Structure formats: C-alpha cells, structure tokens
Amino acid sequence: MTNGGTPGSNATYAGDKTVQETWDILASDPEAVLIDVRTTAEWAYVGLPDLSSLGKTVQPVSWVLFPDMSKNMNFIDEISAIQPNKTAPVIFLCRSGVRSIAAAEAATQAGYGRAYNVLEGFEGGPDQSGHRGTVGGWKVAGLDWKQS
Known about the structure:
There is one protein chain. The chain is of the alpha/beta class. The chain has one domain (15-143): Rhodanese-like domain (Oxidized Rhodanese, domain 1, 3-Layer(aba) Sandwich). It has helices spanning 19-28, 40-45, 75-82, 99-109; strands spanning 15-17, 33-36, 48-49, 59-60, 64-65, 70-71, 90-93, 115-118, 145-146. The protein has a five-stranded parallel β-sheet. A two-stranded antiparallel sheet has the order 3-9. Strand 7 (90-93), helix 4 (99-109) and strand 8 (115-118) form a beta-alpha-beta unit. The chain starts with 14 loop residues before the first strand and ends with a strand. Residues 1-10 have low confidence and may be disordered.
C-alpha cells in the first residue's frame, strides 16, 4: 500500500506521511527515526531537517551516491546500524518524495514493517517557475531545519 493505512500482504511499504504527520510520529515515538536519503551535496547546500527540539537528529544515508548517482549498495546495512529494531517507525525523506519511496520499499523488503515515505519531501515539487522549496515539503511547512 503506497497511500497510507494498514499494509496488506502485497504492500510495497507501510505508507506515505505528510511532513506534519512525520513530525508528530518523531515527537511521540522515542524509537522513530527520520532518514534523509538525499546526497551529500543536497545536505550541504540545501539543508537538513532539525530535530533538536525533539531530542533527535536526522540520520543522513544516501540512496544514491554523489556525484555519479550510483545506488548505495550499503544502504540497508547503514539503516540497520541506525535502527536495528525492524518494528520501529523508519521514515524516509528525500527532495520531493521519490527516492524516499524506493528507500521505503527496500527497507520493507529487508523486514522493516513500518517504513514510511514523506510526501513532498524536503523541498516539495517545482512551482510555476520550476523552482523547488516554495509550494510544499518540510521547508514550506515551517518545520525546523538548518543549512550549513
């Protein structure tokens, strides 16, 4: 099931969450983790969610590796090191909610029963001018974030 709810036997991941639902899960469940699957360049130049007010930190684990954009073959090992409990919520975030779907599907295949995708991602979709960061996503929702 890719649109929330209770997954069935043919579910590809547990579902999609809005950025506010994501924040609420992270705030209410001590075991919930947010994994940002963007690239090192995106983290450095665009910014990262700031979970410090929740007593947590976002966990950066690239789905694809910059600069060649090859798949991170160690992805599951890296998320397993961050969250070994496969029953805890593991929420994946990317730029616009596309790579994070693939990450949630891979985590589900690896046994994570509560792997979620963040709808609209960190920057959301492009606006009428083709610019991101103005019409949706973590930043536009006014949730905490920081830029280096």
